[in-house]
């Protein structure tokens, strides 16, 4: 049987950076006074998140390499994230969380050994599952209706409290009214037509996490987690080769 003829494959076109258009000088703009800053002195401001940012590419070659790596890694990262979040994480938490909640020990974490074999200078891979005190996706009424039948009103009132949050979009008000709105927030929100989104959260009180070891039974712990799950963190160590 004759072999198919070799087909020549064209080499991919080299990556090129389009030259920047020459900038044309813009006409001088008239001086504009800076708008007065809204004062939030009456509110506790959250600290801005900080992260290390690597410097920009310094050459066309470095930019080409960065673009190629980004295009290669991004699809794989997205696919791996779906596998982690939708398949592997539920499998791990479903097996380990009931064991953690059934234990009467002092820790709220559990180690699971991975399949990587021991080798000189490289310990076996480990996975740590830790339960936090934070509850997930729980408004107060839903949580109360789910948890009271499990633990009763007395324990619910002792270890949980209503924790409302209000989110107000100050930018919905006229610019010259925003400072006044901030200063008279509670009384004037309706007057200025600002949309207020309310979250009626539930927050475990101090002592709740410890009470899981001494007050609630293992069955109650597992039933509460099934009804209103805690936030869980998964961390791996010694995985990289």
Description:
With 241 residues, the chain is an alpha+beta fold. It contains six helices and five strands, in the order αββαβααβααβ. Strands 1-2-5 form a three-stranded antiparallel β-sheet. A two-stranded antiparallel sheet has the order 3-4. Helix 1 (60-102) packs across helix 6 and helix 2 runs antiparallel to helix 6. The longest helix has 43 residues, at 60-102.
Task: Provide the fold topology.
Blueprint: H1 60-102, E1 109-113, E2 126-135, H2 140-159, E3 160-168, H3 178-183, H4 185-188, E4 196-204, H5 208-214, H6 218-227, E5 230-237
Antiparallel strand pairs: 1-2, 2-5, 3-4
Helix pairs in contact: 1-6, 2-6
Strand order of the largest sheet: 1-2-5
Which structural class do the helices and strands define?
A: alpha+beta
SSE ordering: HEEHEHHEHHE
Give the end-to-end Cα distance, rounded to a whole number of Å.
47 Å
- Using the alpha-carbon principal axes, give the shape: flat
Tell me about the largest β-sheet: 3 strands, antiparallel
Q: Can you count the beta strands?
A: 5
* Domain unit count: 1
Task: Please indicate the percent range of residues in DSSP E strands (runs of 2 or more).
Answer: 15-25%
- Residue windows where pLDDT falls under 50 for at least 5 positions: 7-12
